[in-house]
Specification:
With about 210 residues, this protein is an all-alpha fold. It has 7 helices and no strands. The chain starts with a helix and ends with a helix.
Length: about 210
Protein backbone atom coordinates (compact mmCIF):
# COMPACT_ATOMS: atom_id res chain seq x y z
CA UNK A 1 0.00 0.00 0.00
CA UNK A 2 1.31 3.50 -0.76
CA UNK A 3 2.43 5.68 2.15
CA UNK A 4 0.37 8.70 3.12
CA UNK A 5 2.97 11.12 1.78
CA UNK A 6 2.89 9.37 -1.61
CA UNK A 7 -0.91 9.62 -1.66
CA UNK A 8 -0.79 13.33 -0.87
CA UNK A 9 1.89 13.98 -3.48
CA UNK A 10 -0.13 12.08 -6.05
CA UNK A 11 -3.31 13.98 -5.18
CA UNK A 12 -1.48 17.31 -5.43
CA UNK A 13 -0.13 16.37 -8.85
CA UNK A 14 -3.57 15.28 -10.03
CA UNK A 15 -5.02 18.66 -9.03
CA UNK A 16 -2.27 20.52 -10.87
CA UNK A 17 -2.64 18.41 -14.01
CA UNK A 18 -6.42 18.78 -14.30
CA UNK A 19 -6.13 22.51 -13.56
CA UNK A 20 -3.66 22.96 -16.40
CA UNK A 21 -0.71 23.84 -14.18
CA UNK A 22 2.45 22.35 -15.70
CA UNK A 23 6.11 23.28 -15.82
CA UNK A 24 8.20 22.36 -18.84
CA UNK A 25 11.82 21.31 -18.41
CA UNK A 26 12.49 22.13 -22.07
CA UNK A 27 11.77 25.34 -23.89
CA UNK A 28 8.64 25.39 -26.01
CA UNK A 29 9.93 24.51 -29.52
CA UNK A 30 7.66 27.19 -30.99
CA UNK A 31 8.65 29.90 -28.51
CA UNK A 32 10.55 31.97 -31.07
CA UNK A 33 8.11 31.45 -33.93
CA UNK A 34 5.86 34.37 -34.84
CA UNK A 35 2.16 33.63 -34.65
CA UNK A 36 0.27 33.75 -37.93
CA UNK A 37 -2.98 35.55 -38.61
CA UNK A 38 -5.63 32.84 -38.61
CA UNK A 39 -9.19 32.98 -39.84
CA UNK A 40 -11.72 32.40 -37.07
CA UNK A 41 -12.58 28.94 -38.40
CA UNK A 42 -8.87 28.06 -38.57
CA UNK A 43 -8.30 29.33 -35.02
CA UNK A 44 -11.18 27.22 -33.70
CA UNK A 45 -9.90 24.14 -35.53
CA UNK A 46 -6.35 24.59 -34.23
CA UNK A 47 -7.70 25.12 -30.72
CA UNK A 48 -9.82 21.97 -30.98
CA UNK A 49 -6.86 19.87 -32.04
CA UNK A 50 -4.59 21.35 -29.39
CA UNK A 51 -7.26 20.70 -26.75
CA UNK A 52 -7.33 17.06 -27.87
CA UNK A 53 -3.54 16.95 -27.56
CA UNK A 54 -3.67 18.53 -24.11
CA UNK A 55 -6.20 15.91 -23.00
CA UNK A 56 -3.87 13.26 -24.34
CA UNK A 57 -1.15 14.62 -22.08
CA UNK A 58 -3.51 14.71 -19.09
CA UNK A 59 -4.17 11.04 -19.77
CA UNK A 60 -0.45 10.37 -20.16
CA UNK A 61 0.27 11.89 -16.76
CA UNK A 62 -2.40 9.72 -15.16
CA UNK A 63 -1.24 6.57 -16.94
CA UNK A 64 2.42 7.01 -16.06
CA UNK A 65 1.56 7.97 -12.46
CA UNK A 66 -0.53 4.85 -11.90
CA UNK A 67 1.86 2.56 -13.74
CA UNK A 68 4.75 3.89 -11.64
CA UNK A 69 2.69 3.42 -8.48
CA UNK A 70 1.84 -0.20 -9.20
CA UNK A 71 4.89 -1.38 -11.15
CA UNK A 72 6.57 -4.42 -9.61
CA UNK A 73 10.12 -3.43 -10.51
CA UNK A 74 11.77 -0.44 -8.83
CA UNK A 75 13.70 0.18 -12.03
CA UNK A 76 10.47 0.31 -14.01
CA UNK A 77 8.88 2.61 -11.44
CA UNK A 78 11.66 5.12 -12.11
CA UNK A 79 11.29 4.69 -15.88
CA UNK A 80 7.59 5.52 -15.70
CA UNK A 81 8.25 8.53 -13.46
CA UNK A 82 10.90 9.82 -15.87
CA UNK A 83 8.58 9.38 -18.86
CA UNK A 84 5.88 11.29 -16.97
CA UNK A 85 8.27 14.17 -16.33
CA UNK A 86 9.15 14.30 -20.03
CA UNK A 87 5.47 14.22 -21.00
CA UNK A 88 4.84 17.20 -18.70
CA UNK A 89 6.66 19.32 -21.29
CA UNK A 90 3.88 18.48 -23.74
CA UNK A 91 1.26 19.35 -21.14
CA UNK A 92 2.81 22.78 -20.65
CA UNK A 93 3.31 23.44 -24.37
CA UNK A 94 -0.24 22.55 -25.36
CA UNK A 95 -1.67 24.57 -22.48
CA UNK A 96 0.36 27.59 -23.56
CA UNK A 97 -0.72 27.19 -27.17
CA UNK A 98 -4.38 27.02 -26.17
CA UNK A 99 -4.02 30.32 -24.32
CA UNK A 100 -2.38 31.88 -27.38
CA UNK A 101 -5.31 30.71 -29.47
CA UNK A 102 -7.73 32.29 -27.00
CA UNK A 103 -9.14 28.93 -25.97
CA UNK A 104 -9.24 26.66 -22.93
CA UNK A 105 -8.43 23.16 -21.81
CA UNK A 106 -11.09 20.44 -21.66
CA UNK A 107 -13.82 20.83 -19.05
CA UNK A 108 -13.70 17.06 -18.60
CA UNK A 109 -10.05 16.86 -17.52
CA UNK A 110 -10.91 15.38 -14.08
CA UNK A 111 -12.82 12.58 -15.82
CA UNK A 112 -10.02 11.93 -18.32
CA UNK A 113 -7.45 11.79 -15.53
CA UNK A 114 -9.48 9.47 -13.29
CA UNK A 115 -10.31 7.07 -16.11
CA UNK A 116 -6.73 6.93 -17.34
CA UNK A 117 -5.37 6.38 -13.84
CA UNK A 118 -7.68 3.39 -13.43
CA UNK A 119 -6.63 1.97 -16.81
CA UNK A 120 -2.96 2.42 -15.95
CA UNK A 121 -3.45 0.62 -12.65
CA UNK A 122 -5.13 -2.30 -14.41
CA UNK A 123 -2.29 -2.50 -16.95
CA UNK A 124 0.30 -2.45 -14.17
CA UNK A 125 -1.50 -5.22 -12.27
CA UNK A 126 -1.14 -7.42 -15.35
CA UNK A 127 2.63 -7.39 -14.87
CA UNK A 128 5.49 -5.22 -16.03
CA UNK A 129 5.76 -6.69 -19.53
CA UNK A 130 2.08 -6.08 -20.23
CA UNK A 131 2.27 -2.64 -18.67
CA UNK A 132 5.11 -1.77 -21.03
CA UNK A 133 3.14 -3.27 -23.91
CA UNK A 134 0.29 -0.94 -23.03
CA UNK A 135 2.73 1.99 -23.30
CA UNK A 136 3.94 0.81 -26.70
CA UNK A 137 0.41 0.55 -28.09
CA UNK A 138 -0.69 3.82 -26.51
CA UNK A 139 2.27 5.70 -27.95
CA UNK A 140 1.71 4.10 -31.36
CA UNK A 141 -1.88 5.31 -31.42
CA UNK A 142 -0.93 8.76 -30.12
CA UNK A 143 1.73 9.09 -32.79
CA UNK A 144 -0.87 8.23 -35.44
CA UNK A 145 -3.20 10.91 -34.06
CA UNK A 146 -0.41 13.49 -34.14
CA UNK A 147 0.45 12.65 -37.74
CA UNK A 148 -3.21 13.14 -38.62
CA UNK A 149 -3.19 16.50 -36.82
CA UNK A 150 -0.16 17.62 -38.81
CA UNK A 151 -2.14 16.89 -41.96
CA UNK A 152 -5.24 18.81 -40.85
CA UNK A 153 -3.84 21.80 -38.95
CA UNK A 154 -4.09 25.07 -40.90
CA UNK A 155 -1.10 25.34 -43.21
CA UNK A 156 -0.01 28.68 -41.76
CA UNK A 157 -0.32 27.67 -38.10
CA UNK A 158 3.41 27.05 -37.75
CA UNK A 159 3.45 27.32 -33.96
CA UNK A 160 0.99 24.49 -33.46
CA UNK A 161 2.69 22.40 -36.14
CA UNK A 162 6.12 22.70 -34.53
CA UNK A 163 4.75 21.69 -31.12
CA UNK A 164 2.84 18.73 -32.52
CA UNK A 165 5.82 17.52 -34.53
CA UNK A 166 8.10 17.60 -31.48
CA UNK A 167 5.46 15.73 -29.50
CA UNK A 168 5.29 13.12 -32.26
CA UNK A 169 9.05 12.56 -32.05
CA UNK A 170 8.94 12.24 -28.27
CA UNK A 171 6.01 9.80 -28.29
CA UNK A 172 7.77 7.58 -30.81
CA UNK A 173 10.89 7.57 -28.61
CA UNK A 174 8.88 6.61 -25.52
CA UNK A 175 7.25 3.75 -27.37
CA UNK A 176 10.58 2.49 -28.69
CA UNK A 177 12.12 2.66 -25.22
CA UNK A 178 9.25 0.68 -23.71
CA UNK A 179 9.75 -1.95 -26.41
CA UNK A 180 13.44 -2.19 -25.54
CA UNK A 181 12.58 -2.72 -21.87
CA UNK A 182 10.70 -5.92 -22.71
CA UNK A 183 7.15 -4.94 -23.65
CA UNK A 184 4.73 -7.73 -24.45
CA UNK A 185 2.52 -7.42 -27.52
CA UNK A 186 -1.04 -6.37 -26.75
CA UNK A 187 -3.73 -8.80 -27.97
CA UNK A 188 -5.74 -7.59 -30.96
CA UNK A 189 -9.01 -7.20 -28.97
CA UNK A 190 -7.23 -4.96 -26.44
CA UNK A 191 -5.81 -2.82 -29.23
CA UNK A 192 -9.27 -2.44 -30.75
CA UNK A 193 -10.80 -1.42 -27.41
CA UNK A 194 -8.01 1.13 -26.87
CA UNK A 195 -8.62 2.56 -30.34
CA UNK A 196 -12.37 2.82 -29.72
CA UNK A 197 -11.84 4.57 -26.40
CA UNK A 198 -9.38 6.94 -28.03
CA UNK A 199 -11.97 7.90 -30.67
CA UNK A 200 -14.50 8.75 -27.97
CA UNK A 201 -11.95 10.86 -26.12
CA UNK A 202 -10.69 12.78 -29.13
CA UNK A 203 -14.16 13.34 -30.54
CA UNK A 204 -15.38 14.75 -27.23
CA UNK A 205 -12.29 16.76 -26.25
CA UNK A 206 -12.28 18.63 -29.58
CA UNK A 207 -15.42 20.47 -28.44
CA UNK A 208 -15.62 20.16 -24.65
Amino acid sequence: MPHLDEVLIGFDKMLRVVAGVAHASRQNPAAKVADAQLEESERRHSAGLMRVNHVGEVCAQALYDSQAQFARSEHLKEQFKQAGREEEDHLAWTSERLRELGSRTSLLNPLWYAGSYAIGAIAARMGDAHSLGFVVETERQVEAHLIDHLETLPANDSKSRIIVDQMREDEAAHGAHAKELGAADMPAPVRLVMKAMSKVMTGTAYYI
